[in-house]
Amino acid sequence: MSDEPRTHVQTVKSLLQKHAFHTKKQFGQNFLIDDRILTQIVAAAAVDKDTVVLEVGPGAGALTAHFAKQAAQVLAVEKDTSLKPVLDDVLAPYGNVHLHFADCLEIDLLELVKPYLSPGASLVFAANLPYYVTTPILFQVLEAGLPLARAVVMVQKEVADRMVASPGGKEYGVLSVGIQYRAKAKRLFTVPPSAFLPQPGVDSAVVLLDCTAPADVTVEDESLFFRVVRAAFSTRRKTLLNALANSFPIAKADCRDWITSAGIRPEARAETLGIGEFANLARQYPR
Ligand code: SAM
Q1: Where is the major localization of this protein (predicted)?
Q2: Residue-wise pLDDT tens for the chain (287 aa)?
Q3: Suppose 58 and one of 64, 92, 127, 255 were both cysteines; which one would form an S-S bond, judging by CB atoms 3.0 to 4.6 Å apart?
Q4: pTM of this structure
């Protein structure tokens, strides 16, 4: 196989022209035109005839069509209703694709998916996510109570780095903890701007989330856990003691006792703490 990207830019351009469709920046519309990348994403998702795929943002349907060939069902949620003629056209050959036009941030994804989940089916989330709203959509999906086996998402490269970052590095932060609390995250490959129409100004990367392997921690109060994580990272240059004392209505001396009782040095910085240590902090929170 040649190393040249197998783009089908003309096919996508003619399709959009046929339906007088113009891509909209405000919806983060950068459509994938590189067949090799599409194939790699579908391979990473490891779908088979027992898999139901939930896709957010099918766009012009390139990824959707690839999944339709391999999965049992594909459920695609698209916000831009003006894409309907394009999607109806491209997806006409596939009887197993179900289009739902809505803002995925405003719907109950579990209710939407339930009717398609027959016993024995596994659920995979896949998306080339719109960059302007990547993390809200990711968390909307991860927190919807869906029985997800895994997720394969294309995001801006810097976001991918933050999703998979380990403690100690400058990319490690609230996003890393939020993602890795729920899934084992692995960055698979980077994707250049030339793989899209129109081309974005940044590199992208594909991340695989194994949702069957969340962090091995016990968190009784998730909302407190995430309050602690956000507070700890709120002022990165400060010590944990100062960051937490700034954010919680607790006297500094009590804050020091709290951190020590969680087995952590009050002078530590948030970016050095593992998820287990954040969980300890939430557990030892003085009530
Ligand atoms: N999947 C297509 C591809 O790879 O070529 C399109 C990806 S494009 C980066 C993102 C898509 O998400 C667009 O079709 C856009 O209209 C849609 N979108 C943006 N915000 C959305 C939202 N809140 N809910 C559902 N779809 C959304």
Answers
A1: cytoplasm
A2: 444 445 578 889 999 999 999 999 999 999 999 999 999 999 999 999 999 999 999 999 999 999 999 999 999 999 999 999 999 999 999 999 999 999 999 999 999 999 999 899 999 999 999 999 999 999 999 999 999 999 999 999 999 999 999 999 999 999 999 999 999 999 999 999 999 999 999 999 999 999 999 999 999 999 999 999 999 999 878 999 999 999 999 999 999 999 999 999 999 999 999 999 999 999 999 98
A3: 64
A4: 0.94
CATH fold of the domain at 9-210: Rossmann fold (3.40.50)
Structure tokens at 217: 């921690």
* Cβ 91 vs Cβ 68: under 8 Å: yes
Q: Verify whether ligand 1 is closer than 6 Å to residue 32 (CB atom).
A: yes
Is the bond preceding 58 in cis, omega lying within 30 degrees of 0?
Answer: no
Q: Is 130 in the pocket of ligand 1 (CB under 6 A)?
A: yes
Q: In the chain, list all ranges with CATH 3.40.50.150.
A: 9-210
**Quick check: CB of 103 below 6 Å from ligand 1?**
yes
Q: How many CB atoms lie within 10 A of CB 22?
A: 9
Class of domain 222-283: mainly alpha
Residue 242 in marked binding region: no
**Cβ neighbours for 239, distance < 8 A, ≥ 6 positions apart:** 266, 267, 268, 269
Where in the sequence of the chain do the CATH 1.10.8.100 domains occur?
222-283
27 lines ligand 1 (CB under 6 A): yes
